[in-house]
Design a protein that fits this description.
Elements: E1 11-14, H1 24-51, H2 58-86, E2 90-93, H3 94-127, H4 132-135, H5 138-164, E3 173-174, H6 181-185, H7 193-226, H8 231-260, H9 265-290, H10 292-311
Parallel strand pairs: 1-3
Antiparallel strand pairs: 1-2
Helix pairs in contact: 1-2, 1-9, 1-10, 2-3, 2-9, 3-5, 3-7, 3-8, 5-7, 7-8, 8-9
């Protein structure tokens, strides 16, 4: 990522949470704990899936990629946010702000693509169980994940080109806890109309298309589940996709709410916290609590680690 020097702004002041000065120490430690648990939880998911043969399936392979995306998102947003909370605001370099925005977009785009891929996996498993192994082959999964990463890098390149076309001459204050698109564009003295149009076009393959795939997949899944004669069978089948559906609802629910309240800054900050901080925290917890296979694999891993420690 290269950014031009066509800007008179050298530093940007992120205001963060100006109305929470009296609670900044408590908020700092709360966010620090959440960050540590998020990183450890997602690393645990990756380690458990990689070390357990029973979890070598497409769904759990996609889950490890989702954990990587959550780690990227958390490390992009939270460390600087901790500094902002502790010091009632923080200054970052202009280039650093743009890099943070690009990394944020990369993680969000990757998350949307992976959630769509996981919904397609559940569609194949529930609607076409006899053809599942032939459809969701190891080669297909690798190619699909590689395509997601390539599309993500292409999106980041597109964003950096967009930003290079703008000139930024102030002000240099952003009333947010990270560098998002709209606050950055407010600092520009260029015409941002075409950039906003390009951003809407850019959102199609990374937001609208994945959301459409998810909705269509679950429409077929619900129809298939309703055709099952027994209630027990319906519950058992639905439980195989309940974790993914919960994650999708949390993620897209907060994103949709942001567009419902576009002018309420405090509401936008709270909603932004939900998908930048809470979602990466909850994803490994939801899958760990709802999946018996993962819980058993974690127990086995803990036993191996305790045995190894005793031998040492």
């Amino acid at each position: 990522m290269q950014f031009s020097n066509s800007s008179t702004i050298s530093t940007i002041l992120l205001l963060g949470f100006q109305n929470l000065q009296h609670f900044r120490i408590c908020l700092f430690f709360l966010l620090l704990i959440i960050f540590c648990v998020t990183i450890c939880g997602n690393l645990l998911i990756i380690l458990v899936v990689s070390s357990s043969r029973s979890l070598h399936s497409p769904m759990y392979f996609f889950l490890t990629q989702l954990s990587l995306s959550d780690i990227l998102l958390s490390t992009t947003i939270v460390p600087n946010m901790l500094h902002i909370v502790l010091h009632d605001g923080s200054s970052v370099s202009f280039v650093g702000c743009l890099i943070q925005f690009c990394l944020y977009c990369a993680s969000e785009a990757l998350e949307c693509l992976l959630l769509a891929l996981m919904s397609y996996d559940r569609y194949q498993a529930i609607c076409h169980p006899l053809h599942y192994t032939s459809a969701m082959t190891f080669t297909f999964c690798i190619k699909a994940v590689l395509l997601c990463w390539v599309m993500m890098f292409g999106g980041v390149l597109t964003i950096s080109v967009q930003m290079n076309q703008l000139q930024f001459c102030g002000p240099n204050v952003i009333d947010h806890f990270f560098c998002d698109l709209d606050p950055i564009l407010e600092l520009s003295c260029s015409d941002t109309f075409f950039v906003k149009i390009e951003d809407m076009i850019f959102a199609l393959p990374f937001a609208l298309c994945p959301c459409t795939v998810i909705m269509v997949s679950y429409a077929y899944i619900i129809i298939t589940i309703l055709k099952i004669p027994s209630v027990t069978g319906q519950k058992k089948t639905f439980s195989t996709c309940s974790s993914h559906l919960t994650v999708v609802s949390l993620y897209y629910g907060s994103l949709i709410c942001i567009y419902l309240f576009p002018n309420l800054e405090n509401v936008k900050k709270i909603l932004a916290l939900s998908y930048t901080v809470l979602t990466p925290l909850l994803n490994p917890m939801i899958y760990s609590l709802r999946s018996r296979d993962i819980k058993q694999a974690i127990k086995m891993l803990m036993r191996k680690l305790s045995s190894a420690i005793q031998i040492m």
